Amino acid sequence: MADTGTQTPRERYRAHIRAEIRERAWEQIATAGASALSLNAIAKQMGMSGPALYRYCAGRDELITELVREAYRSLADTFHATAASESGTDPAAPAAALAHALRGWALDDPQRYFLVYGTPVPGYHAPDDVSGIASEIMTTLLDAYAASPPDGPEALRRALTFWTRLHGLLSLELAGHFTGMDVDPALMFAAELDDLPPRRRDPHRGH
Amino acid sequence: MADTGTQTPRERYRAHIRAEIRERAWEQIATAGASALSLNAIAKQMGMSGPALYRYCAGRDELITELVREAYRSLADTFHATAASESGTDPAAPAAALAHALRGWALDDPQRYFLVYGTPVPGYHAPDDVSGIASEIMTTLLDAYAASPPDGPEALRRALTFWTRLHGLLSLELAGHFTGMDVDPALMFAAELDDLPPRRRDPHRGH
DNA sequence: TGCGTTCGTTAGAAGTTATAACGCAACACG
DNA sequence: CGTGTTGCGTTATAACTTCTAACGAACGCA
């Protein structure tokens, strides 16, 4: 993006190292969870010893925040791509396409999903740009529902229902709460997706 | 249960200390999350220094497992109590009662909820008795749905839908993903609860 | 009263995050 | 092409953490 060509060798090197740090961090998170992420272990894996890593990242929390940002960005991009590729086809389907994209993204790396939608740390507040990406994701979903009936509040309600229902299903599936319970998550997902657009399209405001 | 009267003074003392340990642990978890739980800090809070705690609990993981068990047990008891108190009243309502009980239990201590349904640690497997309590919870929910139509698979489907939808809503609410999004979680919850029993072929009573 | 169990202590090993100070290599500039 | 500044990686250190080992003292039971 920002003139990659006019990078000094040092900037180039820094970017490379930082990328490798994030890469190793993702590996660790995938195998042992975010709470087990160790800067020291990453440094040793990269052949350098301990404090050298602090040249490239301010600390453990900053690195995790960067990974959270990367995860949000990844989901936002996935949503954008599916929304774009689905814009020409069946105008009633974009929500379904987003649903499948979400499930694929979640199954692709469960811990990445949990980094976005998992247990929050009580004190922690995400930086502004991260919540910006979060609202970007929500907007993409909202657009998918605003397409058919150009109705604000109703589209929001549908988008929220999409989000909460699919998240409930995915979250429990990824956490392994369905194991040994004779239930096919993929089938459940399909069933919920089928139920998703509330059939009562008539003005059902009264609550 | 097992003759509390015939406790030796030492057993009595041990039980008291262990209870205080769990109490302090819950305080820490509520304010800083489970990943920040520190045995050392608990010991200092209790006026004794560090390794003394290892007389009462095998280690950090064992303590967390005990808290997870306590959380599961608490939810199971809440469900049992709700189902029992609701057994005499409206036979179509027990699921709704369970739903409100679940939401109350979740809001009462969000981190306790996440200890049960939050981000899992990839390697960790809960001990048998904990998964026993989990299935006990599911059975209570299942009974609430098996009451009206004595139909196995359909009751399971409804119970699972109850679980996944309400968990999705609660999980996102407790994690704060609705903040700044002009949405009332309580209203959303009521709306989802209203949509819950799929009204396809309900012989007794439509909604 | 005596004896054994159990408790809480301190000491220590092996980790972790994170900072400070130092030497050296690499880059940039005259 | 040399020189100087910048930045990288090192080791040392502090302050944590979990957890084990060994010791003395208190407690309970006979």
Automatic annotation (TrEMBL), chains A, B:
The keyword Transcription applies. The keyword Transcription regulation applies. Gene3D superfamilies: Tetracycline Repressor, domain 2. It comes from the Bacteria. Keywords: DNA-binding, Transcription, Transcription regulation. InterPro entries: Homeodomain-like_sf (IPR009057), HTH-type_TetR-like_transc_reg (IPR050109), HTH_TetR (IPR001647), MT1864/Rv1816-like_C (IPR025996), Tet_transcr_reg_TetR-rel_C_sf (IPR036271). GO terms for molecular function: DNA-binding transcription factor activity; transcription cis-regulatory region binding. Residues 15-75 form the HTH tetR-type domain. Residues 38-57 bind DNA. This is TetR family transcriptional regulator. The lineage of its organism: Bacteria, Bacillati, Actinomycetota, Actinomycetes, Kitasatosporales.
